[in-house]
Design a protein that fits this description.
It is a single chain. This protein is mostly beta strands and 472 residues long. It has two domains: 322 residues, Cupredoxins -  blue copper proteins (Immunoglobulin-like, Sandwich); 139 residues, Immunoglobulin-like, CATH 2.60.40. It contains five helices and 33 strands. The strands form seven sheets. The protein has a six-stranded mixed β-sheet, with no helix packed on it. A six-stranded mixed β-sheet has the order 24-21-26-31-28-29, with no helix packed on it. A five-stranded mixed β-sheet has the order 1-4-9-8-6. It is globular. 48% of the residues are buried. The structure holds CU-O-CU linkage (C2O) and copper (II) ion.
């Protein structure tokens, strides 16, 4: 493993390159009932290291990373044709959308993988307004996402929200070597999988080495953060600006000012912020990743125009989505105990119906984690829910590592969290730190076969995945 760019070097480097490509660089397509979107998964090149540095060969939709922002309006039917021009099978998963099971894009569970040269037509209704995203969901999606296959799916509220502009920010770390190549020797690395997952050494916003966001003094912006990181947990703040958190994982929360803590975004999570541009014309403000030493990752660039009047009132809550809410009286309850990983490795677990010792699991099958003593996707579902049942799952993180647990086809609430109050709002992904246990509850109203897995993709592929079924 060569020595890669440190976070510090990245800061120094970023000020040296004055690309203005950030302005509106992100392509967008609007899909209405009549207009299918055509996404071609193929190879391309991107300037992830900035101007004057080597380009990176990537995989992307349309050969760019991230892929186009797909926009629809709440209630629309979306039609997307995926065409696979890669030399590996792929699919499209619509993360966070409560859609028809057949359109969920999970290879071998809801559809056959789309072979090289083949296509697949996705067609589904989007019931919730909010910030969502799409990515492949196959064995090997860790590599596919790492190489750049990801894009945002934005579902607009039926009535416009009171902001001047809406900015999508797809954040992602990459592991890139000095000549700009995705670091291939460490793809699928079991050491990473048993620790925090694949952590990158380069951070991009919308595929830009340093994203510059146009700002006009007095505006109110909606910033939609989407994490397409394989495994890194990030935390963001905006220098000198207050921001209200208004939605998590696409679902509205009561607006709350984020303080110095910033907003934490685990892999696959989204956070919508509303920020009033209180800076002066001509000034700049860094958007920083502050999980470690603050790192300027992007910035607001104010133009020279006179300030317009700031809005006086704080933002209204976003309109709610039609998600059925648990009432606190689950009719089905279960535990999901997460074990394994470095520093508390598996002694043994069941893998494909066979009980194996930890060493065999790791060395022969690349399995280092288990849910309830089972490593990898089981033949049988973790549970079968009656349609409409309220299900509570107590997830116990009995490992030394954080995990971002994602539930397909539904959104859930937290009903209990050891060592603290449950976090508010509906979510599709929940972060559990080591030794945390969190109970989630949801109404199993969406029939079909749905996955439940860690969205640290290296953890998922090395054991942390299961599925459940909701009856017709
Ligand atoms: Cu973002 Cu199972 O997926
Ligand atoms: Cu994990």
């Amino acid at each position: 493993m060569p020595i890669l760019f440190s976070r510090r070097e990245m800061i120094v480097g970023s000020t040296a390159f004055c690309s203005v490509a950030g302005f509106g660089a992100l392509g967008a397509v609007r899909s209405a009932r009549a207009e299918p979107v055509h996404l071609i998964a193929t190879t391309g090149r991107a300037r992830l290291l900035g101007d004057g540095r080597p380009e990176t060969p990537i995989w992307g939709y349309g050969g760019v990373t991230p892929g186009p922002v797909i926009r629809a309006t709440q209630g629309d039917e979306l039609r997307v044709r995926l065409e696979n021009r890669l030399n590996v099978p792929t699919t499209l998963h619509w993360h966070g959308i409560r859609l028809d099971n057949a359109m969920d894009g999970v290879a071998h569970l809801t559809q056959q993988p789309v072979a090289p040269g083949a296509s697949f037509d996705y067609r589904f209704r989007v019931p919730d307004a909010g910030t969502f995203w799409y990515h492949p969901h196959v064995h090997g999606s860790a590599e596919q996402v790492e190489r750049g296959l990801a894009g945002a799916l934005i579902v607009d509220e039926a009535a416009p929200v009171d902001v001047d502009r809406d900015v999508v920010l797809i954040v992602k770390d990459w592991r890139i070597d000095e000549d700009g190549q995705v670091h291939e020797d460490s793809l699928g690395n079991l050491h990473d999988a048993a620790h925090a997952g694949r952590l990158g050494n380069v951070l991009t916003f919308n595929g830009e080495h340093f994203e510059r966001i146009e700002a006009r003094a007095g505006e109110r912006l909606r910033l939609r953060f989407v994490s397409a990181a394989n495994s890194r947990i990030m935390r963001f703040d905006i220098e000198g600006h207050d921001a209200w958190l208004v939605a998590l994982d696409g679902q509205p929360v009561n607006p709350v000012l984020i303080g110095g803590e910033g907003v934490v975004i685990a892999p696959s999570q989204r956070a919508d912020l509303i920020v009033d541009l209180t800076g002066t014309p001509g000034s700049r403000a860094a958007i920083r990743e502050v999980s470690d030493e603050p790192f300027a990752a992007a910035e607001l660039v104010y133009d020279g125009e006179e300030r317009r009047a700031l809005r006086e009132a704080p933002p209204e809550p976003l309109p709610g989505n039609p998600v059925p809410l648990p009432e606190g009286t689950p009719s089905q309850e279960l535990d999901l105990v997460m074990t394994g990983g470095a520093m508390r490795p598996l002694a043994d677990a069941i893998y494909r119906d066979e009980e194996l010792d930890g060493r065999t699991l790791a060395l022969q099958h690349g399995m280092v984690w288990a849910f309830n003593g089972v490593a990898g996707m089981p033949e049988a579902p973790l549970f079968v829910a009656r349609r409409g049942a309220e299900v509570a799952i107590r997830m116990v993180n009995d490992t030394m590592w954080p995990h971002a647990m994602h539930l397909h086809g539904h959104h859930f609430v937290e009903t209990a969290r050891n060592g603290g109050a449950p976090q508010p709002g509906l979510r599709d992904t929940v972060l559990l730190n080591r030794n945390e246990d969190v109970t989630i509850a949801f109404i199993a109203d969406n029939p079909g076969r749905w996955m439940l897995h860690c969205h640290m993709l290296e953890h998922q592929h090395s054991g942390m995945e299961t599925w459940f079924e909701v009856g017709e």
